[in-house]
Every structure is written in structure tokens, then in C-alpha cells.
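Entry 14. Structure prediction run on the chain below.
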Amino acid sequence: MLVIALALASQLPAGIIFQENFDAQNGGVPQLALTSLTGWTITTSTPGVLNPNVDLIGAGSPVDPYPGRGLYLDMEGSQYDSNAPIGLNAKITTNQIFAPGHYALWFFLGNNADIWFPECTTCGQNNTLTVMLGDFTSGPIPATTPGQTIYLVFTTTVPGALSFE
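Output returned:
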């Protein structure tokens, strides 16, 4: 589950330079197996996945493990390709490129594996997220239940897109 904000730390308390809460994605309508997001590219590093996707869940969907947070992403997506492995491990990358600099990034990260398969006592135990921007990488960051806000302050020396995987 992701809700994201990015600011240039060297210019704080300057304003946020990038923000995404996913509430406007797909016209504000929850949907499973989204293969495109406005302003983002969806890919995967999982071999054999033909159609990487994410699930847009939350407000208005049958699945809302974090009520009051609007819409958000389930990064594992939905498994509709019977030949693909379980656990899609989607990677979302901004279409926007950010300049080298010192950044502050914060996002809400939750672990909702048990909502799809409540009978599975081990599902979601190893859910993690890796964050990348330019030459900066942080992770894997463990996903927790009931979720938490993650704060990262970092420097990148090369331009790049912001990615979550």
C-alpha cells in the first residue's frame, strides 16, 4: 500500500515537489489488475510475468484494510495469467525525472496479504519494498501490519525516476 510525497530536503521547508495519493487514478474507481497508472510505468522483475499489474484498492472497494486513507496500491497485483508465478512483485516508476539533490521522501507502507487469503498463516510474512531514485536505493523495507509511515532522507548524485518495487 503506497501513499507518497517527495520534497527537496535542501529546500525545506519548501513545498512538496511530487505527491501521489492514488485517489485520482483510474477515475477514482478501485480496480484489480491495473496495467497502467497516470504518471507511472508498471513493470516487474519477476520472470514469466506477461502483464505486470497492481491492484487499486481502498475506499469504495470490497477490500479496504486501511479505512480513511482513500485509494492505494497492492503492489502484488492480481494473478490472471495461469503461466505466471504467484506474487507479481510489481515495480512502479514515475514518468517524471528528478534532478540530483538531497531529498526527503515519506510514504505509508502497509501489509495486507492476509486480506486475500485469510486462511494462509504465512502469507505476507516476507513482504518488503525497495525504493530507488537516481543512484539511491533503500531496502528492502519490511511491510508491517497495521502499516507505518516510512521517512527517508537521502542524496542522489544522478538524475532519475522514483521507483518502488
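The CA atoms of residues 35 and 53 lie 5 Å apart.
Filed with the rest of this week's runs.
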